[in-house]
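Hi R.,

Here's the chain you asked about this morning:
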Amino acid sequence: MATRNAIGGMLASIILASISACSAVDHYQMAAAPSAPPLPHVSIPSPSVSITSGWINGVALSSLNELQSWETATGEHPAVIGMFGRFAAPFPVSAVRRSLTAKAVPLLQLDPTGISLAAITRGDYDRQLRAYDAAIRAMNDPVFLSFGHEMNGVWYSWGCGKTSPGLFREAWRHVHAIITAPQVRWIWTINDVWSGDPCPLRWWYPGAAYVDWIGIDGYLRQSVRTFTSAFGQTLVDLHRLAPNKPILLAESGVSLGPGWGQRLNSLYSGAYHAGLRGIVYFDGMTANGDYRPQDSPTALAAFRQALRRWN
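And the predicted structure, written out as tokens:
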């Protein structure tokens, strides 16, 4: 769907800005690069969130420099911070450490745009994967890690209509086999399912042994007014496919406009009552809308109330 394509593409470019200093575009392809030496262990305060129980409030910011202003505006310290990293570029150590230092669990989506999944599967990028594993081990704190998010959508090179589901599953399993740091929690991040989607989720699922959590990306815009209309079919499919996996809205938001308060309440109450583990809220703007509650006093008041209620 064109609107989801636009959101997915623009969101990747927006959030990448938060880690551009440590995963530069000119390092995009690094198949021949030497392996990075393991990082020395640094003492980082343990995140304040439990990833085994309780409700999680998270945020995806256009820049980690905006974390303090987000906390001031909303009155909420995020338990999870969402970010993107380009696959095969240097591991975004600075951004991940800043998240951990802020006592928030980083949720890092590895974006393989322009990368051959067949090359990943045959081991061409194993040096980079081992460097990622060493970097994560050196931090010694929990990290949510994903690969090839929204693969059931049609807008990414690794997704529906662009590559085979079997090759995607093989690539996921290979990445999983190389990155074995014990504090990693693997999160299989899909796009919300809509009627008529050409690629069923079951085609892309790498298997229960390779997935710890499931993440869902999806938004409530003015044309999508309730949690059920946005995520109802997705949850039906997931409960059949992976009934025992915890589920998190890994990227979600409510666009400002008429009915904003009702849509926001539907998002949070729906997620809570459906048994989801929490929401990583996208605090940004795209061509499809403004999702920043701090851009409207009325919206911000409603957002603060929702966070207090569902925290």
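Residues 138 and 229 are 42 Å apart (CA to CA).

Let me know if you need anything else.
M.
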